[in-house]
Write a structure and sequence with these properties.
Elements: H1 20-33, H2 38-60, H3 64-80, H4 89-93, H5 97-102, H6 105-111, H7 118-126, E1 130-132, E2 135-136, H8 146-150, E3 152-154
Antiparallel strand pairs: 1-2, 1-3
Amino acid sequence: MGDPKKPKKKYNAPTHPWNKERIEAEKILTREYGLKNKKEIWRMNSLLKNFSKQAKMSIITKTKQGELENQNLLKRLTKLGLIKSGGQIDDILSLTIRDICERRLQTLVVKKGFARSVKQARQFIVHRHIKLGDKKVTAPSYLVSTEEEAAMTFSENSNLANEEHPERSIQEK
């Protein structure tokens, strides 16, 4: 069972630590999506592998329970915005890390225009300036559902809620 004070690791590190192609790809992802370290990439990769494993198991299982699990998986991924409604198992198997990165809170804050860069978006999230619906989320890696995306705003007690705040004005080029 393990020690309750030490939570289980939520990722698997690469088996070969010095693979040049993987390191270059991770460097590009880190720069593009403003990730703090490689563990965030590995965590998303583990999540992606988990989705793929569940999809493969649902293909094999032809029981009533298997169909129910298949529908729940499709519903969950549709709710997260990773696949389109009416998607199939093939859509789950074709997901990439970039698809998951696009649904992270940090990336969506930049896309919605709340921040100028991904680094600034990370700071806004960690400093509790961003609110999803009625809850403040302080994890930049939080996967935002499609319903929560529409309710994304600045926190009321944040200085950034004011339209005239200098960090909110995006300079035109």
